[in-house]
């Protein structure tokens, strides 16, 4: 009987521990895969964070499902880039009691004017403007946008304005990790020592990676290239690379014919060593523009879709992206 009593008494404790583990797994949520990889690094051995968007989803086109809303309802802490990236999250986050941490705050002041024009909530709320938006999509306007894209390109890659893919700069990744750690400590102070130990280890690995990638990319800094969409400004700026342009600002939006013709002309003039597509989107446009032209082709993934989450996954991911870029530009 004593053994049975011991077992009976231990079952509620075991169940409680199991339940606690399951709850903590739902408490810390990151919207995007790259943010999730950073969260994995800083929470290693403390808890298992949750990734909200599936690996193959794009924040440009994603809509939350009921199960996703339940994850947000159960969350104690939510990390997101901000409305500039995950516009679909604005209203759902207003309905959660979780502590919400926007990781793009350092750049918000640079986006005030841009957000006034591009805020999707305003667009959704003012249906009367739908006809106006349809007019904006006319070919003549697309051509105008093509010129705007070129004008914005110089600014974006000097000051990284309007580029919300902040995780592609290792310095930004370190700052993201600091913000995550501060928020985590605020909701689970009993794990402060472990969280800060993870943070320090992650920052050291980033410093070592940065030295490695600078050495890798320095020989190809002058090699021109095009990317599929405007996602790499922080990476390009940090490593001093020669990005000539991009096919589209928003991968959900078809690039204008004049803009594509300008890219093809530069390719024909041998200004570019490589053209990079992305696994999330069709490469038909890239294939059409490069047909008959001798130029290298590579694949870059700004969303880390094929990277298995782990303590070192973010470092492995950024190293892989840099290696793909250097390999194509070296040929």
TrEMBL record:
The keyword Zinc applies. GO terms for molecular function: metal ion binding. The keyword Signal applies. Residues 150-166 have a biased composition (Basic and acidic residues). Pfam families: ZnuA. Residues 108-166 are annotated as: Disordered. Residues 1-25 form the signal peptide. It comes from the Bacteria. Gene3D superfamilies: Nitrogenase molybdenum iron protein domain. Keywords: Ion transport, Signal, Transport, Zinc, Zinc transport. One of its GO terms (biological process) is zinc ion transport. Belongs to the bacterial solute-binding protein 9 family. This is High-affinity zinc uptake system protein ZnuA. It comes from Nitrincola iocasae.
């Amino acid at each position: 009987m004593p053994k049975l009593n011991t077992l009976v008494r231990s079952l509620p404790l075991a169940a409680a521990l199991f339940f606690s583990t399951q709850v903590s797994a739902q408490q810390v949520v990151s919207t995007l895969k790259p943010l999730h990889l950073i969260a994995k690094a800083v929470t290693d051995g403390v808890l298992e964070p949750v990734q909200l968007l599936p690996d193959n989803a794009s924040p440009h086109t994603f809509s939350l499902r009921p199960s996703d809303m339940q994850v947000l309802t159960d969350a104690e802490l939510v990390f997101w880039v901000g409305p500039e990236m995950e516009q679909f999250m604005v209203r759902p986050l207003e309905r959660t009691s979780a502590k919400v941490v926007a990781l793009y705050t350092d750049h918000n002041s640079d986006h005030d004017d841009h957000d006034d024009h591009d805020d999707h909530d305003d667009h959704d709320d003012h249906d009367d403007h739908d006809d106006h938006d349809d007019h904006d999509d006319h070919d003549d306007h697309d051509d105008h946008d093509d010129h705007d894209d070129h004008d914005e390109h110089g600014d974006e890659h000097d000051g990284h304005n309007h580029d919300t893919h902040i995780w592609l700069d290792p310095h930004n990744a370190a700052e993201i990790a600091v913000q995550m750690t501060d928020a985590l400590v605020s909701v689970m102070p009993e794990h402060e020592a472990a969280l800060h130990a993870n943070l320090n280890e992650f920052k050291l690995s980033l410093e070592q990676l940065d030295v490695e990638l600078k050495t890798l990319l320095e020989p190809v800094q002058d090699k021109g290239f095009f990317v599929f969409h405007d996602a790499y400004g922080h990476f390009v700026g940090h490593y001093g690379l020669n990005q000539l342009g991009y096919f589209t600002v928003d991968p959900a939006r078809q690039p204008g014919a004049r803009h594509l013709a300008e890219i093809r002309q530069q390719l024909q003039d041998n200004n570019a060593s490589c053209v990079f597509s992305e696994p999330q989107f069709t490469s038909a446009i890239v294939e059409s523009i490069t047909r008959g032209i001798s130029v290298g082709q590579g694949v870059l993934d700004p969303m880390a879709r094929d990277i298995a989450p782990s303590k070192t996954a973010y470092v492995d991911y950024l190293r892989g992206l840099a290696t793909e870029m250097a390999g194509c530009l070296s040929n």
